Amino acid sequence: MNENNDDINNLNTPCVLVLDSVVRNNCIKMNERAASLGVNVRPHMKTHKTIEIGKYQFEENKNLNKSRGIIVSTLSEGKFFSKEFKDILYATPIAPNKVKDAYQLHLSIDRLNVMFDNIEHLKSMVDYAIKNPNEFQKKWSVFLKIDCGYHRAGADPKLQSTTDLVELIVNGEYNQYFQFQGIYSHSGHSYKCQTPTDIKNLAIEEARVTGDYGKKLKSLGYKVDTVSIGSTPVCSHLPHNLLSEYGVNEIHPGNYTFYDQMQYELGNCKLEDIGVHVLATIVSIYPERNELLVDAGSLALSSDPGCTHLRDLKVINNFGIVYNDTNLRIVAPSQEVSKIQSTNQSPIDFSKYKIGSKIRIIPNHSCLTAAMFSDYHVINNDNQIINSFKPNKHW
Amino acid sequence: MNENNDDINNLNTPCVLVLDSVVRNNCIKMNERAASLGVNVRPHMKTHKTIEIGKYQFEENKNLNKSRGIIVSTLSEGKFFSKEFKDILYATPIAPNKVKDAYQLHLSIDRLNVMFDNIEHLKSMVDYAIKNPNEFQKKWSVFLKIDCGYHRAGADPKLQSTTDLVELIVNGEYNQYFQFQGIYSHSGHSYKCQTPTDIKNLAIEEARVTGDYGKKLKSLGYKVDTVSIGSTPVCSHLPHNLLSEYGVNEIHPGNYTFYDQMQYELGNCKLEDIGVHVLATIVSIYPERNELLVDAGSLALSSDPGCTHLRDLKVINNFGIVYNDTNLRIVAPSQEVSKIQSTNQSPIDFSKYKIGSKIRIIPNHSCLTAAMFSDYHVINNDNQIINSFKPNKHW
Q1: Interface residue A351 vs chain B (CB under 8 A)
Q2: What pLDDT shows up at residue A391?
Q3: N or C, fewer C-beta in 10 Å, chain B?
Q4: Does A295 lie at the interface with B, CB-CB under 8 angstroms?
Q5: Percent of chain A residues topping a pLDDT of 70
Q6: Is residue B327 within 8 angstroms of chain A, CB to CB?
Q7: Measured distance CA(B392)–CA(B332) in Å, rounded
Q8: CB-CB under 8 Å, A120 with B13
Q9: CA B170 vs CA B64, B164, B249: distances in Å
């Protein structure tokens, strides 16, 4: 509402603040880490969904990924980012109802890479090619999604049927339709780890499972350009011999642009590395209950409970903490308001936290929180608004 | 994407379906229930956020509320609904940074009623009136929010300081600025009840606490036009003597338009009363793990865990169930995809659930789920798309 004014205290609340230099620094650090290991970063766009931060993920030439390949979580994101990026990986196994749109996007850029983990995905793409012979001008560009132990998506690399899919598109009857790019895994189970050591071990495990399967495919004579692993926790604890020992040549983190309370609790970032805050206003105070009420509820913060498995039983309910006063936490988000209590029951300073005071909330899960907003207010280190980024929305 | 086609199977997924006759019937039944008790329904708009369903909430003249008074959860909603409704209650204690916008809205319709539960709310409204003497043409219309035991917002009716606030605006130095409309409570703790009997008892408790305070104010000589209680669970189990015994003359439910899995688990509706489903596509299948993967994740369903306190320890993870096959449930939503398992571990029928098959998901919490979408596809009893409703978004 007050975009002409650069003072965040005049913003309509709830709204989201993006800390520009923090986000840029997160991007640079991830790129430097990967470059030191000799691997590409194929950054995921899903956390921020903005062209501007997508560019930050390649800034200063620290990213070895010269094709500026990116990953998106929806086809809507794919179309949105195609204005700037021409090598896009759509990271969900392709459903038949998305084949047509995916192929149109593929034709419009260098390549839209799509995922398969079942023969039905291949069949529906072949079916499209056969039914649209005039339109089918270039092969589908595909990655095999493999399950590295997360058990959400991906084919089992131990099964012969998985390798049979690769054979089918490389040497078999489907070879005229497909360009095989490589393999991809996602270690989402890293968010359930207890300690940084657990994450480190999981990183080794993902590198081994995915890397070994890449080696196996190569030993069978297949060309495997890309062996890609990831999740922000694993990408924060990569083994030094990722490329030399395991043959993994790409990582694909996403959340690291913003980080959040979960990444902090897992030990993957410091509080000052968190690049997104929700600005809220205290709408009432209840000194008799030692509580505040703010105008940011589930529709501003999301209702993700975060890493409850890492918390003391007394502080399980923690849907965000207050920036610069991390003893204060969101304990109960309703749709449009949330209750704030102090974790250790110490008295809240009501001379500081008054009706009308602004607070900044560090979210549990920045991917979900950022997605709640249509505009990001981008601020500098002096808390002045320097830009507005508009994320892609919906599907 | 295929709005010209009335077949839901051609819709881009994920998307939301609104079951027109179910929603209308929910509205009629709530109005009939209230009318039989002789009380108004002041319907809440926050669950659906659409003008069309707002009108359904007054259809067939079953609602005794002749001023067509409604409730909204944000000022953005207030402005949106002011096109159709002229008596609006903004249900969050008014923060100083929202006073100006609230007063503009108040001037533009019959009345915007705002909430107070602390003297600071009154002070900021008086401050605005004093600083804008030419603009201040009509008194602020206000409700006192009282705490009926939920302990989220509201002044304590047992404290003299609460009644002092009423005195201040009715007879005291602030009387030139305010029109006192009545009192309002919200029994959000009804969502933590174990059984319908518990909810019934809570309804009596809210009616007693709020109704008694209304009687007290009247006995002190104050005019109290409205004594309003609510929450969909409580409004589903109202005592027959709500008006005659307790003096409560208004209820303000919202979720009842759509209902959801939580309301079903609490015993407030049947599965067939749930008026909103998320349509999703199966993007992959994993027979070896007896699992499906669908393209509706936390950004389509929300990550609200629902009424975990009512569930068997084995089925705590339930972020939505499959319509017409309620043994299948969302066990793990990620940002854009979710895993589905069968609750009793029985084998999923993979001849029915194939890659590309559509499923309809009954959400845990319809208020949060509906808010994830920019368009509602409205369907009739034959599952044909008959309309598109566009909800108010953001703040």
Answers
A1: no
A2: 98
A3: N
A4: yes
A5: 99
A6: no
A7: 29
A8: no
A9: 27, 10, 21
What local confidence, expressed as pLDDT, does residue B6 receive? 86
Cα separation, B7 vs B10, whole angstroms: 6
Q: Do A370 and A258 meet the contact criterion of CB atoms below 8 Å apart? A: yes
ipTM: 0.96
Mean pLDDT, contiguous 10-residue spans, chain B (395 residues)? 70 98 97 96 98 95 90 98 98 97 98 98 98 96 97 97 98 98 96 96 97 98 98 97 98 98 97 98 97 98 94 89 96 96 94 97 98 98 97 96
B151 is in an annotated binding site: no
Q: Which residues share a beta bridge with B330? A: B340
A191 annotated as belonging to a binding site for a ligand: yes
Q: Does B367 touch chain A (CB under 8 A)?
A: yes
Short-list B179, B365, B148, CA closest to B274: B365
- Helices within chain B (DSSP H only): 20-37, 51-56, 75-81, 99-108, 119-131, 160-170, 196-219, 232-235, 261-266, 298-301, 366-370
Task: Give the largest Cα separation in chain A, rounded.
Answer: 74
- The total of other beta-carbon atoms located within 10 Å of residue B244's CB is 11
Cα–Cα distance for residue pair A157/A146, rounded to 1 Å = 6
Report how far residue B369's alpha carbon sits from residue B33's, in angstroms, rounded to the nearest whole number.
27
Would you say residue A85 has pLDDT above 90? yes
Please answer yes or no on whether A284 and B121 come within 8 Å at the CB atom.
Answer: yes
- Tell me, what amino acid is at B28? I
Cα(A335)–Cα(A296) distance, rounded to whole angstroms?
8
Pick A47 or B2 by higher pLDDT. A47
In chain A, which residues have their Cβ closer than 8 Å to the Cβ of B187? none
Q: What is the pLDDT of residues B38-67, one digit of tens each?
A: 999 999 999 999 999 999 999 887 889 999
Residue A241: pLDDT above 50?
Answer: yes
Instruction: Indicate yes or no: CB of A302 within 8 angstroms of CB of B303.
Output: yes
Any chain A CB within 8 A of the CB of B294?
no
Cis preceding-peptide flag for B14 (omega within 30 of 0): yes
Nearest Cβ partner of A336 from B92, B302, B393? B92
A102 touches chain B (CB under 8 A): no
Q: Which of B153, B188, B299 sits opposite A371 (nearest CB)?
A: B299
Q: What are residue B368's phi and psi, to 5 degrees?
A: -75, -35
Count of other CB atoms within 10 angstroms of residue B332: 19
Interface test with B, best of A150, A152, A278, A393 (most B CBs within 10 A): A152
Closest-approach residue (CA) in chain B for A255 = B335
CB pairs under 8 A between A and B: 149
Closest by Cβ to A367, choosing from B188, B304, B335: B335
User: Of all helices (H) and strands (E), which one includes residue B320?
Assistant: strand B320-322
**Is A148 labelled as part of a ligand binding site?**
no
User: Which residue in A46, A305, A335 is closest to B73 by CB distance?
Assistant: A335
B283 contacts A92? CB cut-off 8 A: yes
* Confidence at A5, pLDDT banded by 50, 70, 90: low
Q: How confident is the model at residue A61 (pLDDT cuts 50, 70, 90)?
A: confident
Residue numbers in A near B121 (CB within 8 A)? 284, 355
pLDDT band for A3, please (50, 70, 90 cuts): very low
- pLDDT at residue number B5: 65
Of B284, B337, B356, the CB nearest to A117: B284
